[in-house]
Amino acid sequence: MKKDATNHVKTRNPGAAEKRSTKEPVAPLPPISVGLLPNLLGYNVRRAQIALWRDLIRSLGERKVRPAVFSLLVLAEANHGIAQIQLANQLDVDKATIVGLIDRLQKQKWVTRKQSTVDRRRQGIYLTALGKRELEKLKRTMIEHEARFTRLFSADELMQLIGFLRRIHP
Amino acid sequence: MKKDATNHVKTRNPGAAEKRSTKEPVAPLPPISVGLLPNLLGYNVRRAQIALWRDLIRSLGERKVRPAVFSLLVLAEANHGIAQIQLANQLDVDKATIVGLIDRLQKQKWVTRKQSTVDRRRQGIYLTALGKRELEKLKRTMIEHEARFTRLFSADELMQLIGFLRRIHP
DNA sequence: TATTGTTATACTCTATAACTATA
DNA sequence: TATAGTTATAGAGTATAACAATA
User: Fold this and answer.
1) CA A86, A87, A90, A94 torsion: positive or negative?
2) Per-residue pLDDT, B35
């Protein structure tokens, strides 16, 4: 029923006004009070994240890549042969989750696993040539997506905002 | 494997240093480069949201209430007899999702449904006396949770931050 | 005994589609 | 014909637990 949702996070509404802009219905829904919600930091962060997330999903949509995969590819590119446990630690997800993501990426031939010679428990992750090319495209998509939001802020404001957010996730 | 996770969102790590603080392992994991991730607005919002979400889950934990339910109760309290479709619009989730949440709350005797006399399609939502009492407790929990994060900011900074976030989710 | 990777399983949150009853 | 609510189903994202190989 919700329009643009492709994800577990609820749909942001660029059309919040839709309902109100149509002809006045017979028994209109009365306006509601939103209570204390808008003053809560957590509520606002959550709503912002949902707005960003949905835009990102829409942007990545055609590429069938999910946000987590993008982060993973960026890390893999910056760290040739990174161990899966390191990806898990850095992205703050369980290692079992990483295995699933890598499995898919490997099937797509975007990454390969190669056993480490230093510690044979480790399966180093390497981007393939295809993976690198695709990541470059993804980065462009990501930059466009970011721009749609960062342009809401001056350079100073953006620095401030990111600084604030880092205090929350130290 | 991840410690405090009770949720689909990945675990924030107050113990990120754990791995490094133990005795130096035989073949230590090499330090990694995080690439461009920390400069992305979306990445930082997501990480902040996860940190807040996990703390909230932990705080609400014993009460077996989820964050979405809290918002719903606040709205129901501020709007006696609110229609489920209004809850869905305000919280930006599908109406089918709201039905599920209300079903549980009704089983717990925290809310009741009552058919509207104005428009009999509507099932107005009302907090029970029990629901009101529980919500008061929840609010205290929520305030403590919020305080753990808002104290990271001065009053001015907090106003600024919330203002920034509202630009992102208009 | 601890760690890396793996498999199998299950849970939370949410959406989609089709339906009923009312309007 | 449209809207509020409902039901049934599915999917994304993630965790947990148990295990093998290696350290």
Assistant:
1) negative
2) 83
